[in-house]
Amino acid sequence: MPVVADDFSPITQGDFGARFAPQFLYDDNSPYNLTGATITSKMQLVGEVNGVIGATLGTVKTCNPSNWTIDNALTGQTHYQYQSTDVDTVGVWDVYITISIGGLPVHPDGGNGPTKQLVILPAP
């Protein structure tokens, strides 16, 4: 089951030059082979609602799938180049990643796909 090994967070609002560069690994840290895979992702804003920290706030952004690049399929290395609409809102974002091979999603632990948290700080 693939997990995300690398992350780049926090970043600054509007910094679409930043890259999210995960490496997908199995639970035993061996690389997940991404040969023939496509990667898509969505971001959902999280915060505090009625005292619940980490509650989803409803705002969902679909990331441009053409901005995902598989750098080395055999070692599971990839990167996503943010677009301006990905990083225009300050907050804590859950990033949901879907890996598909042969048109079918790969179901890692829990069946929900690898998830990471991106913090976007206010621009100075």
Characterize the structure shown.
- The chain has one domain: Sandwich (Immunoglobulin-like).
- The protein is built from no helices and 11 strands.
- The mean pLDDT is 84.
- Strand 7 (68-72) and strand 8 form a beta hairpin.
- Strands 2, 5, 6, 9, 10 and 11 form a 6-stranded mixed beta sheet that branches.
- The protein has strands spanning 3-4, 11-12, 19-20, 24-25, 37-49, 52-62, 68-72, 77-81, 91-101, 104-105, 115-121.
- It is mainly β and 124 residues long.
- The protein starts with a strand and ends with a strand.
- It is 0% helix and 50% strand.
In short:
The chain has a single domain (3-121), classed as Immunoglobulin-like, CATH 2.60.40.3350. The chain is built from no helices and eleven strands. It has strands spanning 3-4, 11-12, 19-20, 24-25, 37-49, 52-62, 68-72, 77-81, 91-101, 104-105, 115-121.
Secondary-structure map:
Blueprint (H helix, E strand, L loop, with lengths): L2 E2 L6 E2 L6 E2 L3 E2 L11 E13 L2 E11 L5 E5 L4 E5 L9 E11 L2 E2 L9 E7 L3
Parallel strand pairs: 2-11
Antiparallel strand pairs: 1-4, 3-8, 5-6, 5-9, 7-8, 9-10, 9-11
